Amino acid sequence: MRQKIIALVGISGVGKTTFLKGAAKSLAFQHLTAGSLIARARVADDNHRDRLRFADIDDNQTLLVEGFKLAKDASASLVILDGHTVIHGSNGLLSIDSAVFAALGIDAMVHLEADPSQILINRQGDSTRIRPALSIAELAEHQAHSLAVAGRIAQALSIPLQCVSHGDKDNFCDFASRS
Question: Is the pTM of this model over 0.70?
Answer without folding.
Answer: yes
